[in-house]
Write a structure and sequence with these properties.
The chain is built from 20 helices and 14 strands. By secondary structure, it is an alpha+beta fold. The protein has three domains: 231 residues, Rhopdopsin 7-helix transmembrane proteins; 90 residues, PAS domain (Beta-Lactamase, 2-Layer Sandwich), CATH 3.30.450.20; 161 residues, 2-Layer Sandwich (Alpha-Beta Plaits). A five-stranded antiparallel beta sheet has the order 4-3-7-6-5. The N and C termini lie far apart (123 Å).
Length: 513
């Protein structure tokens, strides 16, 4: 074992890698963070292998250390390219794409593990004594290493170019752009010095020194400005990433530019869309208004869009260029329809007796008041029929409340059969029911009541054991006084008639007259 100044760059690199790893790890799943962690891990493998090599004086250990570096050496360019792509959101990188880019580096690592059989990675490895008593080693690289070197630099240059191009689009991110360019430049310069034939330290790989410097630069220029967390979509990319469809058209309707969402909406490719007239791919009567700078609602297929038209440039009264933004409001409209339906259903539930599905007392009174108003205006007849099940308590006591509920449901069903379109059949509570008969005088209401009474009397209801149950109803009928219509008075008259029917022996129809 040896510990010399030549180990310090590797130690510094590992410290920079560790600090950066902890910081990026704390960011969670922000775009680009996972790929950046991959860059850090690869740099860690590279630095760890270099450190082991500088600490040992044994050739076999140094050979093993050189091999340990290869996962980092070969996969770092791949991770850097993936970081550039995912951070700038140019496109989604699929696992298949990652596997394809990683295939060559993985093969290189396998060749490094088996180098003793073929010498394709390095053909010679020998110990040398450096100044200060440091025992290093030199390598003579094989043909495959050159291929891997070219492949790695192509990926690094591509990733760096993507990042610099995106960052240069906004002056807000010039500092980050300089940091990225400087970090890559330092690592590349140190690596090229090591591979250069004029390298003054052939036993030492200064790339790890570049990694240490790059770590400090990226921490300051990328992480400290919170670039990964904010991950700004640059101004040039805003329209491209919008889910709203944006179309730039001339005053004559010719498409000048559009984003992918608009191309999908119009069913036209980006290339073919340019200079195509909007009228040929958007059939809507609203188009003339859109070209005049007026918005509205547009339907395309089964979707609905809120279209906003903004004049970008004009020449006097002549519109030269417009931006039309189509926002999909289909889900909002459908939600509004569902809310309206829910409101109607709630109102129906509030006005309906849950057992019999007839109208309840509240709704009956509302309709009665409304029909009284109609009588006042037009002097049309209106009658109320109240009916009560005779001896209903006996049914509950003899057969149980579930059978009693069944009887109430049957009576409700019969009442519905007697209800005309404008009539109201209601359960007022307990075993008391009512019919509201607009445009029906007292004589007509009595005829309806007699048929209702007879139908109930003749109807046979079965209990749970299929035993027949017969019930009867007592009915009171009252007509509204057309000269002085009053809902309370009418209900009182009908109620008095109902009790008159009960006193008369039940199962009959009575009026107050």
């Amino acid at each position: 074992m040896q510990l010399t100044l030549w180990s310090l760059p590797s130690i510094a690199a590992l410290l920079a890698v560790g600090l950066t790893f902890v910081r990026v790890r704390s960011l969670g799943a922000v775009p680009g963070a996972r790929a950046f962690l991959g860059v850090i891990v690869c740099a860690g493998f590279w630095s760890a292998g270099q450190l082991i090599g500088t600490l040992s004086t044994e050739l076999d250990v140094k050979r093993l250390a050189a091999t340990i570096q290869y996962p980092g050496i070969t996969l770092l360019p791949v991770a850097w390219l993936l970081f550039a792509v995912t951070l700038t959101r140019r496109r989604t990188v699929s696992p298949v794409t990652v596997a394809v880019f990683s295939l060559f580096p993985i093969l290189t690592f396998v060749l490094a593990l088996t180098n003793g059989l073929h010498g394709l990675i390095w053909s010679d490895l020998s110990l040398v004594e450096a100044p200060g008593g440091f025992v290093g080693f030199t390598l003579t690289y094989g043909p495959w290493f050159s291929a891997q070197l070219i492949y790695g630099y192509v990926l690094v240059v591509a990733g760096t170019a993507i990042l610099v191009f995106e960052l240069s689009a906004s002056p807000l991110h010039r500092r980050t752009m300089h940091a990225v360019a400087a970090a890559c430049g330092v690592v590349a310069a140190c690596n090229l010095v090591y591979l250069s034939p004029i390298n003054p330290w052939p036993w030492f790989d200064p790339t790890v020194l570049g990694i240490a410097i790059a770590g400090a630069v990226l921490n300051r220029g990328v992480l400290q400005v919170r670039y990964l967390e904010t991950n700004p979509i640059l101004r040039r990319e805003v329209v491209e990433q919008l889910s709203d469809a944006v179309v730039i058209v001339g005053g004559d309707g010719a498409i000048l530019d559009l984003n992918p969402a608009a191309a999908s909406l119009l069913g036209i490719g980006l290339e073919r869309a340019l200079r195509t007239n909007l009228a040929t791919c958007l059939a809507t009567p609203l188009l003339p208004k859109l070209l005049d700078g007026v918005g509205g609602e547009v339907s395309v297929d089964d979707r609905f869009y809120d279209a906003k038209s903004t004049v970008l440039r004009s020449d006097g009264d002549r519109i030269v260029e417009l931006a039309i933004v189509f926002r999909d409001v289909t889900d909002q409209l459908r939600m509004r329809e569902r809310l309206e339906r829910s409101k109607i259903e709630l109102e129906q539930a509030a006005n309906t007796d849950p057992l019999t599905q007839l109208s309840n007392r509240r709704y009956f009174r509302q309709r009665l008041e409304a029909e009284i108003g109609n009588v006042e205006r037009h002097a049309v007849p209106l009658s109320v029929v109240l009916f009560d099940l005779d001896h209903f308590k006996r049914v509950n006591d003899s057969f149980g409340h579930d059978v009693g509920d069944r009887v109430l449901q049957v009576i409700g069903h019969i009442a519905l059969e007697f209800k005309r379109g404008a009539d109201v059949a209601a359960r007022l509570g307990g075993e008391e029911f009512a019919l509201l008969l607009p445009n029906t005088d007292l004589a007509g209401a009595v005829r309806v009541a007699q048929r209702l009474r007879q139908t109930v009397e003749e109807h046979v209801i079965s209990d749970r054991n299929h035993n027949p149950i017969r019930v009867t109803v007592s009915i009171g009928v009252a007509a509204v006084n057309v000269e002085r219509p009053n809902s309370d008075r009418t209900l009182t008259d009908a109620d008095r008639a109902l009790y008159r029917a009960k006193r008369a022996g039940r199962n009959c129809v009575c009026t107050t007259d």
